[in-house]
Each structure stands twice: as structure tokens, then as C-alpha cells.
Design brief:
The complex is a heterodimer of chains A (about 300) and B (about 350). Chain A has helices spanning about 10-30, 65-70, 105, 135, 140-145, 165-170, 200-205, 240-245, 285-290; strands at about 55, 75-80, 85-95, 115, 130, 150-155, 175-180, 185-190, 210-220, 230, 250-255, 270-275, 295. With about 300 residues, chain A is of the alpha+beta class. In chain A, β2 and β3 (about 85-95) form a beta hairpin. The mean pLDDT of chain A is about 80. Chain B is α+β, with helices and mostly antiparallel strands and about 350 residues long. Chain B contains 15 helices and eight strands. Chain B has a three-stranded antiparallel beta sheet. A three-stranded antiparallel beta sheet of chain B has the order 6-7-8. In chain B, a hairpin with a 2-residue loop joins β4 and β5. Chain B is globular and about 65 Å long. Classes of the chains: A alpha+beta (about 300), B alpha+beta (about 350). The interface between A and B is large, with 39 and 47 residues.
């Protein structure tokens, strides 16, 4: 910048005065004021503003990823009996501890949690800024906002129906479906490489058992921990499959494990858990539900 | 007359935060000075050891509310160095535009505080009003007014909102007009010039020996700007210059910051125009490898540095924060000795104190 000219004492007085006089003219007489008359006129907040949360009960799967990522531990899971949805778990938020960082919204795998532009949360009662899941509920809010995160349709596998016929793998033009053998169950399971998938739906059409369906998934930017399965500890108790919020665990029968009972009949074969990792949201619920150390998840607290 | 020690602070309008300046006076003349920081220690470095890498980003924001974008950017830069993550080019341009807006906003807040320190209430109101323009822009970009939590390990949280380009170019034009207005208000004011010119001289040698960085160093005639000398992000592709003045007094420090605001407007404009299309974020790994990462940035207040040690888990083993103000305030003695008590406010105000980052 060029050095400004030194001013004489006339300029020292009148130049600042000229500026202030001009400002008074602009803001008081011809222009509009610079401030907002707050309680009567509301501020115009951008849609990205991070205020009070809302929760879509129907989209939420109760995976508790939001509770885990919260830096201040201000969220918790509540067990609720809903007339429509049955027994569910949904998060509640203590706004007194919330630092409005927005990480819980970002980590939500189904985009059920949102932040509204409502910021007037002050209350004289500390209990009133502690919102339970039912107070956060707003099932229609998600339809109003434009999502920042990209949504795309991907084929989702229902392993209970799959017979391992390899037709989907043969049909895929991108060669992104590989048939992986599931040890000890003696079946083949298609594994879909989601980054390569172009959502052409050819595998869905080819599947004779209707085990593959197209489902909208939101892009996730967080690398979540993956469960590791240890076969020798698994008793087939079904606890992990019940706990999984994303239906990514299937209990399958192991052939060759039938015991012969006293009356000569064969018992039912043992079951083991099979993971469909494309559906996994990395919440660690299976790891916590397993009582036999059959599932390991490094980096997640039990 | 006997000499005596006077405590200025920890509760004093001059301090802008909780710190204590002890000065030894002989009548009105200062003969010795000793800054004491540590009243606002929150243990953030220790707190980070119990949090995952993602959870620390909002904490890094809270190191300094005046320039929180720079600190969370610095943290992400450091962890990306540790993890070996390549950031998409669009994210780098968004980050540069955001941190330069943050630099303008931070300097404007400093100017407001400085003006009110020197008794110019008009300057406080005008600068705070124009800071609001950039705060609104950053609010539309990130979703929060002061603690943004916008950079992420491997990019930025989300894409720029529609109309962001248009609004930021307009804001730059507006700002350059207003800077001329401030020059009329401050440089055109006799009182302001009398309290600044020739006050608080910091010699070039002293500034370099004491580790002073940022605008106070450049105002002492040392051409050292990390954006130029140890370039990070996409700064090498942008055209700007480091602002230097040889005088070393309070007026030079004020001038350097004003010139930096002009340069920041230029950088924002270039970053917005050069911003490519494409991805703004990639998936970063959850666990960092064992090793160390280092990041250095030019904060509005000086050189900020972070050093992180990873041990293979998803939490850092150690996070060290180097604060510019913690080092710069040690030059208080060199700047204050020989001047009057009434000059303390001008001299220490010219440093742009931020105790949140100095005490961590």
C-alpha cells in the first residue's frame, strides 16, 4: 500500500468528522440501520445454522453412533415403547452441555438427526434444556431440508433369502460383486464393492430369490470400526443379531454339527453369525451384546 | 522517588483476558516489566489425550475464539501430516478462503479493541459492524458464528453454500472501501497518532531473539511470513505479499495489520476465483499410525504450531500446541521500559492478546 500523505491539523480534525457525519447520514436519515430490533425482528439465519436438534423417529435406527462421537457426552439412549414402531432406542440431548459442533448430525448413517435454526434455548430451569427423545421428535423435518450429503441407491443383500447362485455376480457389468465363501456354513455370499457400483440394478433384476433390493444410502465420511468375528467362541445365541440396528447379522446353520440325540433323531445344527459388512454402521452394539468374546472391535469401549 | 511494582491485571481493562502485567515504575516511567500468564489454564493439551481425533476439532476451535478457523485448520493440517492424508484441491481453496476471512475478522476485532483502548469509541463500533459481514459469511459457510468446527481431517465438513462466491466477492469490495474509511478515522486522528507513533519500539534484534512472530515481528522490519517462507496449503499459487515495515513502533504494528487486511481481501478473491470443482472431502482413517506429525501456520497473531504423537490407536498420545501470544508477550519488557504508564495500554493492546491460546 502507498504511504498516505501526512495531514495538517485541519485534516486531523475534519477527516474523521466527515466520516462520522457521512455515517450518520447513511444510517439514520437515508439508509437503514445496521442493527436488528431483536425480539420483534428475527435474524435471517442460513439453513446450515447449528441450533436445536430434531430427530426423525422413522429414519433413526438407534445405532447410538451420535452418542459415541459426542465430545461432551451430552447424549444418551432411551428405551421407548412406541405404538407404531414398537420397542425402540432413541437418543436424547442435554442442551446445557451441548457445544453445537454438529458431529452427531454428520455421523448419523440414516440422516435422522438434524439441527434446526432455532437458537432460543435459554431457560430458568435446568431441566427444561434437557430434551428427551420424544421432545426432539419431528418426523417431517427431514423432508424440508436439502441434504448436504450425497444420497445414492445401492443394492442391499438379505442374506436369509440368498442361496449363493452367483447369478448377480455374473450379471454385474462393473465386476463389483465377488462371491466369497463363508467358512463352515458351506455357502457362497455375494460381497458388493460399493465404491465401484453404478446402481444399474442388473443384479437386483437377476436375483431369483429377490434377496437383493435397491436402497438409498447416504455417503459417510467417517471410517467406523468393523467387527471381527471369532468362530470358535460363537455359541449361536442370536444376541448379536437381535442387537444389530442395521440388520447386518444373520444367524445361519452350520451343516455337520448335528448331534445324534438319545432317540436316534438328529438335533438341530448349530448356528453361527454371518456378517454383511456393507450394511454395517460400525456402532459396536453386537460387540457389546456378545457375552462369549466372539466379536472383537478394536477401539470401542465395552 | 522510590521505585515500586504495580500489578496491572488480572482484572484490568487493558489485559483483554486474564493475565497479569507487573510493572516497576519510577514516578511515571517504567523501569521493568514482567508479564504473568496462567490464570486461564484449561488443560486442553491433556484433555485432547482422552478424545478421538475427530472429537478434538471442536476443542481446537476453542483455543481462540477470535480466530478459531485457523486453529482447527492447524489441527487438521497436523493430523493429516501424521496420517499421510491428501486433501482434495477444492477443500484446500475453501480452507484458504475461510482462514483469510477469519484473518480479516480477527484483525477487525483487534482494531475494535485497540480503538476502545485508546479512547476511540467510534472505531470500536465501525469495526465491529464490518466484522459482522465476515462473521455472517462464515456462518453461512460453516453453520456457526464463532466456533466453526468446519475443517475435517481430509477436507472440509461440507461444500460451500450457493451464492457464497458472490457474497464473498462483494464482502471483499465492501471491506476495501471500509479500510479507506478506517484510515481516515485512525490515521487522520491526531490523538491516535500521538499515542502510537514512536511508542513501544521493539528492535529487530530483540524481536528475533525473543521469538516474536506475526505482525509484531514484521512491524520490526523482519520479512518473515510463513505463508511465503514455509508455504502450506495452496498459498504458493496465490499472488500476495508479506507486509513489512521497518519502524517497530505501535503505529507500524497497526499499519502492518491494516495492510494485511488488504492482502487478505486479495487472497480471498483469488481463492474464490481459482476454486476448482470436485470433491471437498475424503474419508480419513480412524486410527493414526504410530509416529509424529507437525503443522505450522501463520495465525493472525503469529506462528501457530502443533505437534502430535500417534500410537496406533484412535486417540493421540500427546498434542503440543505452540501459541504465538505466549511467546510474543515475553517481549513486553523490551517494549515497555522507558515509556510512561499511560503508554502501557497502547503497547500491550498492539500485540493482539488472546489468552485462550496462550494458556491453553
Amino acid at each position: 500500500m502507498p504511504a498516505r500523505k501526512r495531514l495538517n491539523s485541519f485534516g486531523f480534525v475534519f477527516r474523521p468528522m466527515k466520516r462520522t457525519g457521512k455515517q450518520v447520514w447513511e444510517s439514520l436519515i437515508v439508509g437503514k440501520p445496521n442493527t436488528v430490533l431483536y425480539p420483534y425482528h428475527k435474524l435471517n439465519l442460513p439453513p446450515t445454522y447449528r441450533g436445536k436438534h430434531t430427530l426423525d423417529f422413522k429414519k433413526c435406527i438407534g445405532c447410538a453412533n451420535c452418542v459415541q462421537i459426542c465430545p461432551n457426552d451430552c447424549m444418551w439412549m432411551e428405551k421407548i415403547e412406541d405404538p407404531e414402531l414398537g420397542k425402540i432406542e432413541r437418543p436424547g440431548i442435554d442442551m446445557g452441555r451441548c457445544l453445537f459442533c454438529g458431529l452427531c448430525v454428520e455421523v448419523c448413517p440414516t440422516v435422522a438427526l438434524h439441527e434446526t435454526v432455532e437458537f432460543e434455548l435459554a431457560s430458568s430451569d435446568r431441566g427444561k434444556i434437557k430434551f428427551s427423545a420424544k421432545e426432539l421428535r419431528d418426523d417431517s423435518y427431514a423432508d424440508k431440508v436439502v441434504e448436504e450429503r450425497q444420497k445414492r441407491a445401492v443394492p442391499v443383500l438379505d442374506l436369509g433369502k440368498c442361496t449363493g447362485c452367483e447369478k448377480c455376480a455374473g450379471e454385474c457389468p462393473e465386476m463389483c460383486i465377488a462371491m466369497m465363501p463363508v467358512e463352515s456354513v458351506g455357502k457362497l455370499k455375494p460381497e458388493i464393492a460399493l465404491p465401484k457400483c453404478t446402481a444399474c440394478e442388473k443384479c437386483v433384476v437377476a436375483c431369483p430369490e429377490k434377496a437383493l433390493t435397491m436402497k438409498d444410502m447416504y455417503e459417510s465420511y467417517f471410517e467406523m470400526p468393523e467387527p471381527k468375528f471369532i468362530l470358535k467362541n460363537c455359541t449361536g445365541c442370536n444376541a448379536c443379531a437381535k442387537a444389530c440396528p442395521a440388520d447386518a447379522i444373520y444367524m445361519m446353520e452350520m451343516p455337520g454339527t448335528e448331534r445324534i440325540l438319545k432317540d436316534g433323531k438328529k438335533s438341530k445344527p448349530k448356528k453361527r453369525a454371518v456378517f454383511v459388512l456393507e450394511k454395517c454402521v460400525g456402532c459396536g452394539k453386537c460387540f457389546r451384546a456378545c457375552k462369549f468374546q466372539s466379536i472383537e472391535m478394536p477401539g470401542v469401549k465395552k | 522517588m522510590a521505585e515500586m511494582w504495580i500489578n496491572m491485571g488480572p482484572q484490568h481493562p487493558m489485559t483483554h483476558g486474564l493475565w497479569n502485567l507487573r510493572i516497576k515504575v519510577d514516578g511515571e516511567t517504567i523501569t521493568d516489566a514482567e508479564p504473568e500468564v496462567g490464570y486461564l489454564h484449561r488443560g486442553i493439551e491433556k484433555l485432547c489425550e482422552g478424545k478421538t481425533y475427530t472429537q478434538i476439532i471442536p476443542l481446537a476451535d476453542r483455543l481462540c475464539y477470535g480466530s478459531s478457523m485457523t486453529w482447527s485448520h492447524l489441527y487438521c493440517l497436523t493430523v493429516e501430516d501424521l496420517m499421510g492424508v491428501e486433501v482434495p484441491e477444492r477443500a484446500e481453496y475453501i480452507r484458504v478462503a475461510a482462514i483469510e476471512m477469519q484473518r480479516i475478522a480477527s484483525h477487525l476485532m483487534w482494531l475494535a479493541a485497540y480503538a476502545v483502548d485508546l479512547g476511540a469509541m467510534v472505531g470500536f463500533i465501525y469495526t465491529m459492524r464490518d466484522r459482522e459481514v465476515f462473521i455472517d459469511l462464515l456462518q453461512a459457510l460453516t453453520g456457526s458464528r464463532l466456533t466453526y468446527n468446519y475443517p475435517r481431517i481430509g477436507g472440509v465438513a461440507h461444500d460451500v453454500p450457493p451464492d457464497f462466491e458472490r457474497d464473498s466477492l462483494r464482502a471483499c469490495d465492501y471491506m476495501e472501501k471500509k479500510l479507506v474509511e478506517y484510515e481516515d478515522l485512525f490515521d487522520g486522528s491526531k490523538i491516535f497518532m500521538m499515542r502510537n507513533v514512536g511508542v513501544g519500539k521493539l528492535r529487530k534484534e530483540d524481536a528475533m531473539n525473543l521469538g516474536v512472530t506475526g505482525p509484531p515481528l514484521r512491524a520490526s522490519g523482519v520479512n518473515y511470513d510463513l505463508r511465503k517462507d514455509m508455504s502450506y496449503s495452496v498459498y504458493p499459487e496465490l499472488d500476495f505479499q508479506a507486509c513489512t515495515l521497518p519502524d517497530g513502533d505501535c503505529y507500524a504494528r497497526y499499519r502492518v495489520r491494516m495492510d494485511e487486511m488488504y492482502e487478505s481481501c486479495k487472497i480471498v478473491r483469488q481463492a474464490i476465483q481459482k476454486m476448482p470443482k470436485g470433491k471437498w472431502r475424503i474419508v480419513a482413517p480412524r486410527n493414526a499410525p504410530s509416529g509424529t506429525g507437525l503443522g505450522r501456520v501463520e495465525d493472525p497473531r503469529g506462528e501457530g504450531m502443533m505437534y502430535v504423537v500417534g500410537d496406533g490407536t484412535d486417540k493421540p498420545y500427546r498434542l503440543k500446541i505452540r501459541s504465538p501470544i505466549f511467546v510474543t508477550v515475553s517481549a513486553a519488557k523490551k517494549m515497555l521500559v522507558g515509556y510512561k504508564v499511560a503508554d502501557v495500554v497502547a503497547i500491550m493492546g498492539g500485540l493482539d492478546m488472546c489468552i485462550g491460546e496462550a494458556d491453553r
